[in-house]
Automatic annotation (TrEMBL):
GO terms for molecular function: aminopeptidase activity; metallopeptidase activity; zinc ion binding. InterPro entries: Peptidase_M18, Peptidase_M18_dom2. Its cofactor is Zn(2+). Keywords: Aminopeptidase, Hydrolase, Metal-binding, Metalloprotease, Protease, Zinc. The keyword Cytoplasm does not apply. GO terms for cellular component: cytoplasm. Belongs to the peptidase M18 family. GO terms for biological process: proteolysis. It comes from Sulfurimonas lithotrophica. The keyword Membrane does not apply. SUPFAM superfamilies: Aminopeptidase/glucanase lid domain, Zn-dependent exopeptidases. This is M18 family aminopeptidase. Coiled coil: none annotated. Its EC number is 3.4.11.-.
Length: 419
């Protein structure tokens, strides 16, 4: 796949995936189009060599794999979630002439960029149908229904120097001046748009606000891609396209976990059992299972901090990744990243043989280092792992920025592991 088609597909994927549920559903459809068959964890598996499969857990995490006689799997791991504002259960607040929604920040999001944005709402809703059965469905309002207005500088003269944001009181989106607003009626209206007309009662929901501005190219030469949720749908897309591009006889796996932004400790997170359960069912013989793990490689793909041209001092001078200069190998002496000299060397060798650029990132020694699903998975399974990422600015903002060259380059390097 050439870079233009790759990036056009990426923009569409980003726009169609406002939540982990939607991202997972979109990946499911792409896998089905590529000939992958769905497995269900609650059913007995009968795997056939030379076929391709996928599994979904919690509607928000996905694993896809080819079933090959070869045990040296190339695994690509990413995460489906991004920082956002999630709706609270009793969310409707009516005061001061408007209707507001109570929200709770999810993950380590930058709050300032959320002000004065056209927001919509999407996620999963559970309801009771006419047969007294609890069902789940995804909704995406799409309409620009809310905004978080800034406080005018006239009312806060120190806004540009000292303003802080209170997560409980300052970031509540306003929806309407209509005091008759009813949340259950609103949700039923959204269900009707999905041709669901027998919802007797609305139960729980997992709904998140998102920016309605579309993903787009930015720059004089379309140098950049700007979008919400680049961290980490960018890596999800790279991993997904990679496994869809190989033959069924090629041993490969793609893992997209939820809840990385809040620590990965959930049934669908990387600290959970999803991947291990899947691998044990693929290789029920323990000797085969261990042989597969020790002959395979995990590429943990999560965005990397590009050097900010206005804040270069925030980076180690010798390890300052630049956008459109290749994928980033992430290294940390304290094992916040799982890369080691063996896995790094293999990545370097494959990239060099393909003529693809690569960079290395080490955080400043006096600045804390984030982590990824890489160390979690390496610890749990004992699989050789490398942490890589694509250089990004504005990470955890409502709109992030990445180079338009880098994702396609990483895609080619991952495919190079299969040659």
């Amino acid at each position: 796949m050439d870079k233009k088609d790759f990036n056009e597909g990426l923009l569409g994927f980003l726009d169609a995936s406002p939540t982990p549920f939607h991202a997972t559903n979109n990946m499911k459809m792409m896998l089905q189009n590529a000939g992958f068959l769905r497995l269900y964890e609650e059913q007995k598996w009968r795997l056939d060599e030379g076929k391709k499969y996928y599994i979904i857990r919690n509607d928000s995490s996905l694993i896809a794999f080819t079933y090959s006689k070869n045990k040296n799997y190339v695994m690509v791991g990413a995460h489906t979630d991004s920082p956002n504002l999630k709706l609270k259960p009793n969310s409707v607040i009516k005061e001061h002439g408007v209707v507001k929604f109570g929200v709770e920040p999810y993950g380590g999001l930058l709050l300032n960029p959320w002000f004065d944005r056209d927001l919509s709402l999407a996620g999963r809703v559970s309801y009771l149908d006419s047969n007294n059965t609890i069902k789940d469905t995804l909704i995406d309002v799409k309409k620009k229904i809310a905004i978080i207005p800034s406080l005018a500088i006239h009312l806060d003269e120190k806004a540009n120097s000292e303003r802080t944001i209170n997560k409980q009181t300052d970031i509540l989106p306003i929806l309407t001046t209509n005091d008759d607003f009813n949340f259950e009626d609103f949700i039923k209206w959204q269900l009707e748009k999905n041709d669901i007309r027998d919802a007797k009662e609305i139960y729980a929901n997992e709904l998140s606000f998102y920016d309605t501005q579309k993903a787009s190219y930015v720059g004089l030469r379309d140098d950049f891609i700007a979008s919400a949720r680049l961290d980490n749908l960018l890596s999800c897309y790279v991993g997904l396209l990679s496994i869809c591009s190989v033959e069924a006889s090629t041993p490969m796996m793609f893992i997209a976990n939820d809840h990385e932004e809040v620590g990965s400790e959930s049934t669908s997170g990387a600290s959970g059992s999803f991947l291990e359960n899947t691998l044990r069912r693929m290789y029920p013989d323990y000797e085969d299972y261990i042989q597969m793990l020790r002959s395979s490689t995990l590429i943990s793909a999560d965005n990397a901090h590009a050097v900010h041209p206005n804040y270069p001092s925030k980076h180690d001078k010798e390890h300052s990744p630049k956008m459109n200069k290749g994928a980033v190998i992430k290294i940390n002496a304290n094992q916040r990243y799982a890369s080691n000299s063996k896995t790094i060397s293999k990545f370097m060798n494959i990239a060099s043989n393909l003529g693809e650029e690569y960079q290395q990132f080490v955080t400043r020694s006096d600045i804390g280092c984030g982590s990824t699903i890489g160390p979690l998975t390496a610890t749990r399974l004992g699989i050789e792992t490398i942490d890589v990422g694509l250089p990004t600015l504005g990470m955890h903002s409502i709109r992030e920025l990445a180079g338009s060259e880098d994702a396609h380059s990483l895609y080619k390097i991952i495919l190079g592991y299969t040659l």
